[in-house]
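Support reply, case 0932

Customer input (verbatim):
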Amino acid sequence: MEAVNAIGRRKAAVARVYVKEGNGKIVINKRELENYFPSPILQYIVKQPLNKLDVTGKYDIKINLNGGGHKGQAEAVRLGIARALVKIDPNVKPILKAEGFLTRDPRVVERKKPGQPKARKKFQFSKR
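Our regenerated output:
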C-alpha cells in the first residue's frame, strides 16, 4: 500500500496528512507526536479516529502542519487522519461520521470592523 494523503483544516490551521502501513509512529513537522503536542489532551484528540477503529499500531502517519494554535492544529490533524482512513477503507466512513470526525468545523474568527475596537465590541458612546 502506498501512502494515502488527506487535508484537514480547523480555524487557521492546515494539516497535510500522509498515512501508510507501519507500526503506529506519528510524526508532525519532523517531530514526534509527544514532542509536538506535550499535552495528553491534544494527543488524545489526534489519536481519536485511530482509537475508535482500533488501528492505533497499524499505520505510520506523517503530518505537515502550519497555521493556527495548538487546539486548532490538533483538530485539523484529527480531520485529516479521519479522511485518510476513509480513503484507505470506505467501510469505516459511517463509524467516523457518527463520531463527528469527518465534519469540518466551519467556525472561524470574525473579522475586526473599522470604527470598532474588535469584531463586535463598540467604543463607549458619549452623548455629550
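We compared this against your earlier run and they match. Two observations from our side: DSSP finds four helices and five strands in the chain. The helical segments are 33-36, 40-53, 70-88, 93-99. Please reopen the case if you see a mismatch on your end.
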